[in-house]
Design brief:
Length: about 230
């Protein structure tokens, strides 16, 4: 039997708008096996970014259980906050690559040094980091700093950082949302090529329905119960 990379059961999340509670997630469940990809779609405010943040421990659900890469997190347990955060932080450092809509690069480091740092933090060899940038078409920019390159080039560097970890799971939040169509297509192609090469799992939040069709599975958060 295939062991899942991630299982989430009964996730609920509310925020407050003034004095009124607003339900963003209602009894959401999902499963992802190794090598599979899942597209999260839905209108703005349907909870796509919230789901990704919960699945990597940057936000806590009001209710529900998550099992990811052998670690279990349950809202019903009495585990102290810092203990759960330490386990989440280790997963993000070593096994979960997160790609934000705006590339999260350290401005004081070159593109190459950003990738090398990510590899080292994950305990990976950093010898092939320049090659990763070459494969993504920005090898000649390796020595430049984030503010010296375009948004599309920064996003490619962010992908290189994620894959330099050799992660089991990648979470990508609208990775092409701010890019022009030509650059978005190139970044998308590279994302799926790298995923196939590494054999990792992928969860992708996107407004792009065409992009969603490239994934193994599709979940429209606009159709979840209570939405």
């Amino acid at each position: 039997m295939v062991e899942p990379v991630l299982v989430a059961r009964g996730l609920n999340k509310q925020f407050r708008s003034g004095n009124q509670p607003v339900s963003v997630l209602s009894d959401l469940s999902l499963r992802l096996d190794r090598g599979e990809s899942l597209a999260l779609t839905g209108r703005s405010g349907s909870g796509k970014s919230t789901v990704l943040n919960i699945l990597c421990g940057l936000e806590q659900p009001d209710a529900g259980r998550i099992e990811v890469l052998g670690e279990a997190f349950d809202s019903r347990t009495q585990e102290r906050g810092h203990q759960a955060e330490a386990r989440w932080a280790k997963l993000r450092r070593q096994q979960i690559g997160v790609v934000f809509q705006e590339a999260n690069l350290m401005p004081a480091l070159s593109l190459l040094d950003n990738v090398r740092l990510r590899a080292r933090l994950a305990g990976q060899n950093d010898d092939d980091c320049r090659d990763r940038l070459e494969r993504l078409g920005i090898g000649e920019l390796a020595g430049r700093y984030p503010d010296q390159v375009s948004g599309g080039q920064r996003q490619r560097a962010a992908l290189a950082m994620a894959f330099a970890m050799n992660p089991a799971l990648i979470l990508a939040d609208e990775p092409t949302g701010s890019l022009d169509r030509h650059t978005a297509e190139a970044v998308t192609r590279q994302l799926f090529e790298l995923q196939a090469r590494h054999g990792c799992s992928l969860i992708l939040a996107t407004h792009d329905t065409e992009l969603a069709t490239r994934c193994s599975h599709h979940l429209d958060l606009g159709h979840q119960p209570g939405s």
